[in-house]
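Annual report, structural modelling task.

Input specification for the inosinic acid complex:
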Amino acid sequence: MKLVFATNNPNKLSELQALVPQGIEILSLIDINCNEELPETNPTLEDNALQKAQYVYQNYGFNCFADDTGLEIEALGGAPGVYSARYAGQDCRAEDNMKKVLTKLEDEENRNAKFRTVIALIIKGEENLFEGECNGAITKTKSGVEGFGYDPIFTPEGCEITFAEMSKQKKGAISHRGRAVEKLVAFLNS
Ligand code: IMP
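The model returned the following structure:
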């Protein structure tokens, strides 16, 4: 089976390729000659994931899936949530986003947070959603160089190290995206 992963994020693509079993071939947007920025204009992860997958399905005709992820920080009332990518402003970098989070939590004891991922799958026009969560805590300082986004400041529950200090395989085994992909793969196998 061939499925397009509707993402322009090379980190997400390589995480996914490490998670799906042989027999499911993951194509990138480049593989289908899609060089566009995908629309992502909704206020929920669910609608954004669907919007990206629908865009690729309708304009390129491939069975595909897309994910949308948010970091929800308890002491910030669930922010940055669906706005995680641009938390520090339009065109900001991951460094800016992490700096903003660490500054906001400077004097905060409650560092509970969770990542939530929603994957939208479209096969022959039929839509399905899969969700994965990972609870954890925001660190006081950045640590590690692996992964992407907020990984250097997030320690998953039960771990002593951040996502950015883990291999792709270890992160995938416990991460929000890994859990959503598990459900996606179970669905594809059923
Ligand atoms: P999106 O799903 O690409 O819209 O991601 C929203 C924001 O969350 C971006 O800033 C990403 O870098 C960040 N993000 C998404 N997934 C992860 C992850 O697995 N670890 C850390 N940050 C992530």
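The chain has one domain: 2-189.
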